[in-house]
């Protein structure tokens, strides 16, 4: 049985007819046309695209790395499977069929014949292609491994540099994994071949395995066990990323039970591998069988049962003590990985005045004179209706916020590029020629000061007032010689997120010999002259892009000339992501005017998911809030344990030029990729001074750090374990507002104030914890938190924290975007004593519970839609918080309606102000400033009057002295105040009962009683 026959084994070979061969060839050709040709075409057009942005090296490096990984893994798997088949075939035994006995495998033996390569070559080939295709997706792991940059920091368990975990460990894990895959596939191929040729005969009483089959199979099994031993060794390091109920990182059980178990399993695997190899010499398969049992038993007892026993009987009864050291490691590593350590974050403890004084608050002129009352998330329809120009132009759903220095003073602006909106094209505008060769670009840059409007709006039914003071820089302004507040020399926008909504997204531009044809203005056409775009004058490129976009007009149209170009991938984020595929880009891009050109600014993050002991969190979950939940602009659902805003990128709106700048040059991940792809990222010194003035602290990074600071501001591991010192991010009050129907009076409750200028319930009263999307952070201009004595305005990104599952204000976080202090985070921590300051949702409750506000909403709701703007929590210089929320209205059931500012609500120390202007609303809570601080609106409609005047300046003006509407000084002893508070609470409960009862007469009486209680409380003053 062990002697190989000289010829083919008996049996009838499987014949393949000529027709069958023709069908096979046709199938192969069809696969090539469907699968290979499109990929080749994509590779060619990608090469052209990368050349158009001077990033061919990125395409070349990525392609070669992918090909290299594909070839290596494909060869590894293909050769392993081939070796398994050929070794089994060459060692096949003599097989003689028994007469009268059916032989189901005879046909397959005959098919392989004397040359199995011709018959079954496709098996290793297919497996090799599949394996290589999967492996090549890890090309970034390979590049990072060969360009690894040390962090200069070591992990606390093994003492290895962090770069080992960031760049090397993933590569070693991939190598071991693919070795195991190759061995398993080779084992199965070898086993199956032996079975076909009789080397393996299941059920045979004697000689179930030939000597050759036994040697080959136990050798492959031994190699697999060796690879498994290597996997056990690597498992020890990966325990530093394990997720526990309380923290990320190796726990007490991991270090003291699981790590020793992994070492033990490593040793057992080595012994078992020797046992498998011993079967090559010793013809006793019981030895490898016992080794297999030993390996499985060890994995069950030592690898699982022992750590579980340690966890249950040693750790659980004393977890706070046992985990203390490892929680401390997690705190330190998380702060370092997310850049929220002491070198970046400044804590101001015991912040918050026990008895806020509005007179002292009025001295913070810098903050009060720059309060933003225009909400970029509300006013996009207003920009569209008033400055759209043509139906095919548009503005993004969320406007940008940026700052410009005007007349020597920094101001924040709502900003937007007037882009082409392909979704708005109508009728014949959607024709291929018009859509892709005529309507190709937008026109202009539109901005509005964020702290004022054109004039005061007194009536919800009027169209006058409450509108932004638009500053337009476009072709009309240039042609007419108008003076532009923000000068633009090239207002045409060929690239932008709105333009990129077109499907397919491309425009064909350039001189085709017939003169200008692109729409520019009503009286002029234009021909693109920028450097961007891919030439499509030649037939090769025309064919390639005709295939890419599945559009025959690209191939046949005579509108395409020798100088024509095609512009595509026009979303700034997509362009940056394509040039730097190792970056994660911020979801918020915004336009800025730099050197007279409109440029989109994109923030790029470097991330890792293998930073030892650092918190492993989902980017999507941490950055989700009420705005991106609605818009769908979210980061990928990717878990990370390290993040840096390492790159600032710009995309020119006219020619699409992509410029990457190394913003955090100390980042080892950035350094690694700069070595892997040299010349793509420019040094930080290349950032111009003008560009630096428009760089913002990125919202998504801020939200990630905000979520983590809510926990990792805790220093003590014991407190961290109990969670009692954690904070929470508040839900968005404007989404979770208790006022769902503006026509229905609000239900008042504890902790709410009923009227402007009055205080509400007892200090520290809690509202019901709300479920809803998180409140987004907001860009504002305030006093510099790092220099309270300075009068210079500072551009900050701010957010409030509430108590852990409670609504009171726990802390306030701000991040600076000023060039001198960029990235400095200030966290003001509320004093832990009573009375507790009101949080955002409590402030919202207090304001909307006012009868005056409720009555206005009821009246307006009949004819207008009411929108609550962003609720800003603004820290003032006297350690108090001012809440400001604008209210917008627009007419109902009219397509042409748009929001305009109608009222402003403020809350200060539980007193409420509510007026058409911020100035008057601040007066109602007793905050008054020097008349010299009044900002005069450029339209001349807001004029400062003498002290005590009653004129209404445009929004954003600082308040002038006048008699406060509620509370100013002195008044009322504690007993009287407590009695008044009780009366307020009683009246509030009566209003709530009357609302639920539905009797209008009872409700009217309850509201009258409430107003009387308000008047009584107000007569006592605020006690300051």
Low-confidence stretches: 1-15, 738-770, 934-972
What's the total count of β strands? 32
The coarse overall form would be globular
Estimate the mean pLDDT confidence: 84
Percent in strands: 15-25%
Question: What Rg, in angstroms, do the CA atoms define?
Answer: 36 Å
| Amount of helix | 25-40%
Main sheet specs: 6 strands, mixed
The CA-CA distance between the termini, in Å, is 107 Å
Helix tally equals: 31
| Helix/strand structural class | alpha+beta
Short note summarizing the structure:
This protein is α+β, with helices and mostly antiparallel strands.
How does this model look, in words?
The protein is built from 31 helices and 32 strands. The strands form nine sheets. Strands 1, 23, 24, 25, 26 and 27 form a six-stranded mixed beta sheet that branches. Residues 1-15, 738-770 and 934-972 have low confidence and may be disordered. With 1024 residues, the protein is α+β, with helices and mostly antiparallel strands. Strand 26 (809-816) and strand 27 (825-830) form a beta hairpin.
């Amino acid at each position: 049985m062990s002697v190989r026959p000289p010829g083919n084994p008996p049996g009838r070979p499987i014949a393949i007819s000529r027709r069958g061969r023709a069908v096979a060839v046709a199938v192969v050709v069809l696969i090539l046309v469907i699968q290979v040709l499109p990929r080749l075409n994509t590779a060619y057009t990608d090469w052209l695209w990368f050349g158009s942005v001077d990033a061919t090296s990125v395409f070349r490096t990525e392609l070669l790395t992918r090909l290299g990984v594909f070839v290596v893994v494909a060869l590894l798997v293909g050769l392993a499977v081939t070796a398994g088949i050929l070794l089994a075939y060459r060692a096949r035994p003599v097989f003689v069929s028994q007469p009268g006995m059916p032989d189901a495998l005879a046909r397959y033996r005959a098919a392989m014949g004397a040359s199995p390569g011709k018959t079954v070559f496709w098996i290793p080939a297919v497996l090799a292609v599949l394996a290589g295709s999967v492996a090549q997706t890890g090309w970034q792991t390979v590049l990072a491994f060969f360009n690894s940059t040390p962090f200069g920091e070591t992990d606390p368990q093994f003492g290895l540099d962090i770069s080992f975990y960031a760049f090397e460990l993933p590569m070693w894990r991939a190598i071991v994994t693919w070795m195991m895959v190759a061995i398993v596939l080779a084992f199965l191929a070898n086993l199956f071949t032996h079975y076909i040729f009789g080397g393996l005969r299941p059920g045979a009483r004697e000689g179930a395995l030939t000597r050759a089959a036994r040697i080959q199979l136990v050798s492959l099994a031994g190699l697999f066990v060796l690879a498994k031993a290597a996997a056990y060794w690597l498992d020890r390091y990966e325990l530093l990323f394990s997720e526990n109920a309380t923290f990320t990182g190796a726990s007490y059980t991991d270090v003291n039970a699981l790590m020793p178990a992994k070492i033990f399993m490593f040793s057992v695997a080595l012994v078992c591998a020797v046992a498998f190899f011993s079967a090559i010499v010793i013809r006793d398969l019981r030895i490898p069988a016992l080794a297999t049992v030993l390996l499985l038993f060890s994995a069950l007892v030592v690898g699982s049962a022992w750590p579980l026993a340690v966890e249950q009987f040693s750790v659980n009864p004393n977890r706070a003590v046992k985990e203390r050291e490892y929680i401390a490691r997690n705190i330190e590593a998380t702060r370092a990985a997310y850049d929220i350590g002491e070198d970046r974050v400044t804590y101001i403890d015991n912040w918050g005045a026990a008895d806020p004084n509005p007179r002292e608050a009025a001295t913070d002129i810098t903050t009060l004179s720059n309060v933003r009352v225009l909400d970029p998330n509300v006013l996009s329809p207003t920009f569209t209706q008033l400055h759209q120009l043509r139906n095919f132009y548009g503005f993004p759903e969320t406007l940008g916020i940026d700052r410009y220095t005007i007349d020597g003073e920094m101001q924040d602006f709502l900003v937007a590029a007037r882009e082409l909106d392909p979704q708005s094209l109508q009728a014949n505008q959607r024709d291929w020629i018009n859509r892709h060769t005529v309507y190709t670009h937008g026109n202009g840059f539109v901005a509005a000061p964020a702290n004022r409007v054109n004039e005061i709006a007194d009536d919800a039914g009027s169209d006058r007032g409450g509108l932004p003071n638009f500053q337009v820089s476009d072709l009309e302004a240039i042609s007419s010689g108008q003076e532009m507040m923000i000068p633009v020399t090239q207002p045409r926008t060929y690239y932008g997120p709105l333009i990129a909504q077109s499907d397919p997204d491309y425009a064909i531009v350039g001189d085709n010999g017939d003169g200008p044809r692109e729409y520019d203005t009503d009286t002029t056409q234009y021909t693109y002259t920028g450097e961007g775009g891919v030439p499509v004058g030649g037939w090769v490129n025309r064919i390639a892009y005709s295939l890419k976009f599945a559009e025959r007009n690209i191939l046949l149209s005579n509108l395409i000339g020798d100088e024509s170009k095609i512009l595509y991938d026009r979303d700034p984020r997509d362009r940056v992501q394509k040039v730097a595929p190792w970056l994660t880009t911020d979801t918020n891009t915004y336009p800025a005017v730099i050197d007279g050109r409109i440029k989109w600014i994109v923030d790029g993050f470097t991330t890792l998911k293998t930073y030892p002991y650092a918190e492993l969190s989902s980017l999507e979950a941490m950055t989700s809030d009420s705005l991106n939940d609605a818009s769908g602009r979210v980061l990928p659902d990717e878990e990370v344990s390290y993040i840096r805003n390492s790159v600032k990128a710009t995309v020119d709106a006219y020619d699409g030029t992509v410029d990457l700048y190394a913003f955090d040059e100390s980042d080892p991940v950035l350094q690694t990729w700069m070595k892997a792809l040299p010349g793509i990222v420019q040094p930080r010194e290349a950032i111009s001074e003008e560009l630096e003035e428009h760089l913002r602290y990125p919202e998504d990074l801020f939200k990630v750090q905000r979520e983590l600071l809510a926990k990792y501001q805790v220093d003590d591991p014991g407190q961290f374990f109990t969670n009692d010192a954690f904070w929470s991010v508040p839900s968005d009050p404007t989404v979770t507002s208790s006022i769902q129907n503006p026509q229905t009076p609000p239900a008042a409750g504890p902790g709410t104030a009923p009227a402007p200028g009055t205080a509400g319930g007892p200090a520290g009263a809690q509202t019901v914890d709300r479920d809803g999307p998180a409140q987004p952070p907001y860009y504002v201009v305030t006093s510099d938190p790092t220099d309270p004595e300075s009068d210079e305005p500072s551009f900050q990104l701010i957010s409030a924290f509430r108590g852990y599952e409670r609504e009171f204000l726990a802390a306030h976080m701000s991040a600076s975007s000023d060039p001198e202090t960029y990235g400095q985070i200030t966290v003001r921590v509320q004093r832990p004593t009573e009375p507790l300051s009101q949080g955002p949702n409590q402030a919202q409750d207090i304001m909307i519970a006012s009868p005056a506000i409720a009555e206005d909403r009821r009246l307006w709701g009949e004819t207008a839609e009411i929108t609550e703007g962003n609720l800003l929590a603004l820290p003032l210089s006297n350690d108090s918080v001012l809440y400001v929320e604008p209210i917008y209205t627009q007419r109902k059931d009219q397509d042409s309606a748009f929001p305009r500012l109608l009222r402003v609500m403020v809350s200060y120390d539980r007193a409420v102000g509510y007026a058409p202007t911020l100035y008057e609303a601040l007066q109602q809570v007793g905050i008054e400033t020097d008349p010299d601080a009044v900002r005069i609106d450029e339209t001349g409609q807001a004029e400062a009057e003498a002290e005590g005047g009653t004129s209404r300046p445009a929004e954003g003006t600082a308040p002038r002295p006048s008699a406060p509407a509620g509370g100013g000084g002195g008044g009322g002893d504690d007993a009287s105040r407590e009695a008044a508070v009780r009366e307020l609470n009683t009246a509030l409960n009566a209003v709530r009962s009357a609302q639920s009862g539905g009797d209008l007469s009872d409700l009217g009486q309850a509201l009258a009683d409430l107003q009387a209680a308000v008047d009584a409380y107000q007569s006592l003053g605020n006690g300051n």
